[in-house]
Amino acid sequence: MIKSTSMLPECFDRVSYERSHCTQTGAEFHFFACYQRLIRKVVVTLPSHSILTHRITYLSTLRNISRSVILTLVVLLFSCSFSQAQWVEDRGIDQRVQRGIDEIYNFEFDKAESDFSEVIKLRPDHPVGYFFRAMIQWERIISKFDDESQDEKLYQLLEEVVTVCEKRLDENPEDVAAMFFKGGAVGFRGRLRANRGKWLGAANDGMVALPLVRKAYELEPENYDVLLGMGIYNYYAAVIPSNFPIVKPVMIFFPSGDRKKGLEQLRQASLHAKYARVEATYFLMQNLFAYEKDYAKSLELARKLHETYPNNSMFYRYLGRNLVSTGYLGEANDIFLDILNRYTQQQIGYDMYDAREAQYYIGKYEFLAGRFEPALKNFYECDELSRKLDKSESSGFMSLANLLVGMIYDAQGKRQFAVEQYKKVLAMKDYENSYQEAKKYIQQPYKRTQ
Q1: Are 216 and 84 in contact (CB under 8 A)?
Q2: Is the pLDDT of residue 278 over 70?
Q3: pLDDT (tens digit per residue) in 218-259
Q4: CA–CA dist 175, 128 (Å, integer)
Q5: For the chain: N or C, fewer Cβ within 10 A?
Q6: Mean pLDDT over all residues of the chain?
Q7: Alpha-carbon torsion, ordered 331, 334, 338, 344, to 10 deg
Q8: 197: left (phi over 0), alpha (psi -120 to 50) or beta
Q9: Measured at the alpha carbon of residue 375, what is the angle toward residues 369 and 432, in degrees to the nearest 5?
Q10: Domain with CATH 1.25.40.10 in the chain
């Protein structure tokens, strides 16, 4: 069994509810959009000489944070949308809703579309069917993230959710279901706007949605499904400032978090929630992986999710990542080979982002095994995909793949080619000490040790 402690490029999502893709999909940008709106209130309290520095640091952070590093306000809203209190009492409809949710997670979109259309037909006054029909469209957008042609349809579907919810709230201002689903719809609208760089609209949506979620929690604090949303908020409200000090000023406008409490709330929701169990398990897995570094427990959850939803590309990739982090590189390689094959076969939910990540890990596995030619092939294909996908700056996949190409050339005695690669790395973004390694190998050739 080949083992390595440095195979994970820093570019991929630290925490993401959905497909992340190393870009998938910028939920933290929504938080920073809210930050952008509120910073004017904070910056006036800074000394005049520090305002420019603070602004430059903020913009740099906004550009450079890997997409999906944190899930903040909007995901909180989505996760709360699974509360038991929201669901219709009819057992048959309830079962159809649960089945439809499972179909969404397993990327069986046509089946889910049929189920939620029937739910809407049976309960046109309840937002549940409208909301999850919109979530099908959301997942379709995520599976082809660079294609913006489907955005308008999602906005229309979310507006239907808001309309149904507002009608219910007019009749009963304490309608928990309407609060949750309106918050979720507004949140996802803002999330897509943030992903597309529409910061002002995203900020407005965030400011509208958060009070709805908190009010719903006040009305039903003992609900395990509601607990998921509060767990997410408590966890990230504590984690965000410690990992990104730039956001500390804005946190004075929000309730303080509790990392330990948030993690426990997520555990409880993953065990006991009726409709939010999968989402809670997913968040728990990500947090254990990205922030707690408890790869063994994260791996256990990743296996569970993949076994239950074998078509879900994000669950599958997290299984591969966790296997890498725990040293099971052979099994991880098999998974990434399968992911690449699913992309080649154009399976729903598998796109160029999945292929790029797979080829990086496959290449790294071949490199560690000393099989340089297949390693080079995968690294170059990873680089080619990165050049198509990386819009504003190079990703960690590109930087590390090129560094490893240089190391292979050194191992093959092709010193001139190796130096050219290291110089390319220095022109890219620094990930996991790629600059330091490239500079070191420019001075002294990489030598492979057995």
Answers
A1: no
A2: yes
A3: 887 777 877 777 788 889 889 988 877 777 777 776 678 899
A4: 13
A5: C
A6: 80
A7: 140
A8: left
A9: 85
A10: 298-443
Could you tell me which of 199, 195, 197, 234 has the C-alpha nearest to residue 213?
A: 234
In Å, what is the CA distance from 111 to each residue of 78, 106, 107, 116, 381?
21, 10, 9, 9, 35
Look up residue 353 and give its amino acid. Answer: Y
DSSP class per residue in 320-373? HHHHHHTT-HHHHHHHHHHHHHHHHTT-TT--HHHHHHHHHHHHHHHHHTT-HH
Name which residue leads in pLDDT, 262 or 79. 262
Give the length of the chain: 450
108's tokens: 């069986």
Pick the CATH number of 298-443 from 1.25.40.10, 1.20.1330.10, 1.10.3720.10, 3.40.630.30: 1.25.40.10
Give how far Cα 148 sits from Cα of 142, 145, 188, 192, 265, Å: 10, 7, 15, 10, 36
Taking alpha carbons only, the member of 68, 84, 1, 86 closest to residue 32 is 68
pLDDT at 450: 64
Spatial contact of 8 and 325, defined as CB atoms under 8 Å apart: yes
Distance CA 76, CA 30 (A): 12
State the sign of the Cα–Cα–Cα–Cα dihedral 96, 98, 101, 103: negative
